[in-house]
Amino acid sequence: MAHRLKGKVAIVTGAGSRGPGLGNGKATAILFAREGASVLCVDHMKERAQETVDVIRADGWSAEAFAADVTRVADCDAMVADAVARWGGVDILHNNVGIESRHALLETTEEEWDHVMAVDAKSMFLATKAVVPALERRGGGSVICVSSIAGLRGYGRTAYAAAKAAVIGFVKTCAVQLGPKGIRVNAIAPGMVWTPMVSDLGEEMRERRRRATPLGTEGTGWDVAWGAVYLASDESRWVTGQTLIIDAGATTR
Ligand SMILES: NC(=O)c1ccc[n+]([C@@H]2O[C@H](COP(=O)([O-])OP(=O)(O)OC[C@H]3O[C@@H](n4cnc5c(N)ncnc54)[C@H](O)[C@@H]3O)[C@@H](O)[C@H]2O)c1
Predict the structure, then answer these.
(1) Dist. CA 145–CA 186, nearest whole Å
(2) pTM
(3) Which of 39, 104, 142, 188 has the greatest count of CB atoms below 10 A from its CB?
């Protein structure tokens, strides 16, 4: 590995995976660590974060598990405080937490809307707000928010699409406000990657998702994670307010 994040401290939210296999957050935490970062693996189900930590440590890299529900202010503050106490500061926040909602407008309840907005959008606001003072003390840093191509085009899953579009707006306003502090804020919009989050869709849908892209190959958590490594590293030092689309070309159609 190239040590592209050597000496950096990273927080990855949703660093576990909801099922067997590799989610976007888990893959990102693993690559951050392999690139030399110390990684706080945050999940509201600590055993999921611990699984990721175990993978990282088995390779001899540095990570710790931390239990937090990132829809809560106190938990976001505590997660940042833990990273600072453990490693002396924070350089990277990867806001990965997100849940799907698969209902169209007329089937979406008010409770579902509020829940998806809280987990997919408000969590990024709270975590980013919590980490800014720590990033400022380091002279800058990188915040990455995981959106989705669902937020970029008309998509039938109402609350999810709206929340993921909100993430892109959030990234732009933060990039403008935090740029003078040396803090870069970018989004990643993954396409139809095959992760535990969507594995209940079944093999037929898996094949349809694969074929729906110009490249015609299946994406995994690793594809999203490599984009995150770039945005976390100093290689992207002149990139802020952007949305990196990782979708095998799906949105070009
Ligand atoms: N798989 C896809 O096709 C796809 C496409 C576009 C975007 N995404 C985005 O990727 C991200 C999910 O990635 P993943 O593969 O790591 O998902 P995942 O569900 O496997 O893992 C996410 C982790 O987040 C944790 N989590 C959920 N709510 C939490 C909360 N409130 N506080 C703390 N932790 C919480 C879960 O316990 C889980 O371990 C989401 O933002 C999702 O919208 C996925």
Answers:
(1) 6
(2) 0.98
(3) 39
Q: Tell which residue, 128, 74, 62, has the closest CA to residue 96.
A: 128
Q: Which of 12, 13, 43 to mutate to test the pocket of ligand 1 (most atoms within 8 A of CB)?
A: 43
| Count of helices and strands (H, E) across the chain | 8, 7
Percent of the chain clearing pLDDT 70 (strictly above):
99
Residues with CB under 6 A from ligand 1: 13-14, 16-18, 23-26, 43-45, 48, 68-71, 96-98, 119, 123, 146, 148, 190, 192-193, 195-198, 221
The highest-level CATH class for domain 9-246 is: alpha beta
Domain ranges within the chain, ordered by starting residue: 9-246
Residue 127 in contact with residue 79, Cβ under 8 Å? yes
DSSP string over 72-124: SHHHHHHHHHHHHHHHS---EEEE---------GGG--HHHHHHHHIIIIIHH
Q: CB of 79 within 8 A of CB of 42?
A: yes
Output phi, psi for 42, to 5 deg. -105, 135
